[in-house]
Amino acid sequence: MKKCAGLLTVFVLLLLQVGGVFAQVSDYEIIDTYKKKQQSLMESLKTVQDPAQCDNLGNDIGRLEAAYEQHRKLLAEGLYPESFDASIARLREQLKKSRERIALAEESKKDKEQIQVITTKVEAAAQKIEVISKQNAEYRAAVDKLTQDVQELSTRIQRVTEENTGLLSKIKALQQEGRKDKESIAKLRDMTEKLNANIQDRNQLIVKMMDSLFSEYAKPGLTDAQKKSMFVIAQDNDYVSKIVGTIDGNVKYVESALLTPQNAKLIRDEQKKLAAKWDEIKPFVGKLYPDEQLKTRELAAVDSRLTDLKRSIDETTWKSIHQIFTAQNIAIVPFRNAGEFSANLLAYIDEQLRNPSREKYQTFRSKVWDSPIKDQWLPVIPVEELTERQRTDIEERIALWDKKIATLFWRWLLIGGAGVALIAIVVVLARRKKKPLSPAGSHGT
How far apart (Å, rounded) are the C-alpha atoms in residues 84 and 93? Predict the structure, then answer.
């Protein structure tokens, strides 16, 4: 019995010794595992590169702390001289440093990107400045050339205008003298041709000046300052006044003399060119004026003179045509436009139909209508001015006049023939009556 109790005591002591050994092994594993996890977390925290990974590692620290909270005293001994709380705090401190490091890296990256963006913008701005500087240099050169060209054109226009004024005075003086000698006629013709050439040159010069300003103003990308300089150029060179002056010169020329068909065509074509060019650049010219009242007045001045020019050309054209009738003593009431021309001409022909004269008809037909009116003047007159209907009415009335004259001719021819025949009969009868008879007794001797 005593022997059994002794064995039991020994067995219990052995169990207690083995349990102590197992307890020591388990504490060691807890401390060792904790240290490994803590060290692994520390290394991960030192190398982490992403904010999201930092969040995950922060959660891992929290889980590690929670898992080993119950071993706080054991770990305090195993980690000595560092405590469990200190080791966890060191992890969190490293997490904070890692967050700051990543944030700094992100900020640096953003700064680099921003620097790159700014650098790109600066380079683009530098290129733009270079382009603008080049454009400004080109524009200044273009404006300098434009100024010089406009001034040269203005000078030439002024010189031609002065020459035209002198030619007009000389032409009027010769016309008033009324001399018909060959020398005077040749001189008048030469001066008139020179005047026509000058007028054409001046019109071309003014159109060229219009184009010079318009082409520059129409360029894209002009600044307000550049547009203002265009206005200064136009003002300095009295741009609108040059246009008005050119038109005035044409009006004076048209009003001063009779036109030939060639001159009429020339001056009508020039008027159309001027009017078309003015319509083209008028919006541009309007933009040159900052003052609305001045703009309205200047533009209206050109519009008015162009209207005057067209009216003068029309009136002088029809006055020149009427002069052809007057030169042949054909009494047609004066006309100032196509409508009056058609009406007055038809009235004249109707009057002739009531009392037809072969001589007047032949003069009208050969020296006026067939040439120069029909073959030279009518082609100059646009169909919208003298319509096809009006032309047909005139031709039909002339044909009726021709028929009337032909009928009259044959009537007089028949009357003449009958008269000749009657005279012949009378002569024959008279001769027979005067013929002597033979003596009565002559046969008997």
Answer: 14
> In which band, very low, low, confident or very high, does the pLDDT at 153 lie, cut at 50, 70 and 90?
low
For residue 380, give the DSSP letter. T
Contact 164, 248 (CB under 8 A): no
Token pair 């052995």 is found at 14
Summarize pLDDT for 361-382 with one digit per residue, the tens.
999 999 999 999 999 999 999 9
User: In the structure encoding, which two tokens stand for residue 188, read together?
Assistant: 């008048």
Residue 388 has pLDDT above 80, yes or no: yes
Asked if residues 212 and 153 have their Cβ atoms less than 8 Å apart, the reply is yes
> Which residue reads 């028949």 in tokens?
414
Q: Which domains does the chain have, with CATH numbers?
A: 14-127 (no CATH), 129-308 (1.20.190), 338-432 (no CATH)
Give CA–CA dist 419/412, Å, rounded.
10
- Across residues 261-270, what is the average pLDDT? 90
- Rounded Cα distance between 112 and 55, Å, is 26
What residues have CB less than 8 Å from 72, skipping those under 6 apart? Answer: 84, 85
Question: How far apart are the C-alpha atoms of 217 and 281, rounded to whole Å?
Answer: 10
What is the overall mean pLDDT for the chain? 80
Contact 246, 157 (CB under 8 A): yes
pLDDT of residue 140: 55
Select from 391, 380, 379, 377 the least CA-distant residue to 339: 391
Average pLDDT for 216-243 = 75
Q: What is residue 337's three-state secondary structure?
A: coil
CB–CB of 342/393 below 8 Å? Answer: yes
Instruction: Flag whether pLDDT at 11 surpasses 80.
Output: no
CA neighbor of 357 nearest in space, from 393, 391, 331: 331
pLDDT digits (tens, 9 = 90+) for 333-342: 999 999 999 9
CA distances to 2, 17, 184, 353 from 402, rounded to whole Å, are: 182, 162, 39, 9
Task: Using CA atoms of 286, 292, 298, 302 in order, give the dihedral in degrees to the nearest 10.
Answer: 50
Place 356 in a pLDDT band, splitting at 50, 70 and 90: very high
Separation between Cα atoms, residue 352 and residue 160, nearest integer Å: 49
Pairwise CA distance, residues 414 & 412, whole Å: 5
